Amino acid sequence: MSEVAQQETLGIEATCTSINAYDLVGTEIMVAVAYAVDAEQILMTLEYTKVVTEVTTPAAGIIAAIHCQKGDEVQVGDRIIDIQPA
């Protein structure tokens, strides 16, 4: 990805409501590359020992990349989705 494209892309990172979470599992992905999304729309859910966290977008835009698939393990702070702001 070019430097200009990276500056225009908003990265969404894995989070969890559980304090000491690790090895989060993507349980559901509700979007695909090129989908238009609204602010606060749920993009995917992550699970850690039965704690489910909904990952939402802070702004409207277009999904540029998805860096994990259903069933993949990610860590808190890993970049999981890129969005080009609208």
Features of the shown structure:
86 residues, four-stranded antiparallel beta sheet, OB fold (Dihydrolipoamide Acetyltransferase, E2P), mainly beta, disordered N terminus, elongated, 8 strands
Account of the protein in words:
With 86 residues, this protein is mainly beta. The protein has 1 helix and 8 strands, in the order H-E-E-E-E-E-E-E-E. Strands 1-8-6-3 form a 4-stranded antiparallel beta sheet, with no helix packed on it. It has a 4-stranded antiparallel beta sheet with strand order 5-4-2-7, with no helix packed on it. A hairpin with a 2-residue loop joins strand 4 and strand 5. The longest helix has 5 residues. The chain is elongated.
CATH superfamily: RNA polymerase II/Efflux pump adaptor protein, barrel-sandwich hybrid domain
Count of alpha/pi helices: 1
The CATH architecture can be named as Beta Barrel
What strand order characterises the main sheet? Answer: 1-8-6-3
User: How many beta-strand elements?
Assistant: 8
Oligomerization: single chain
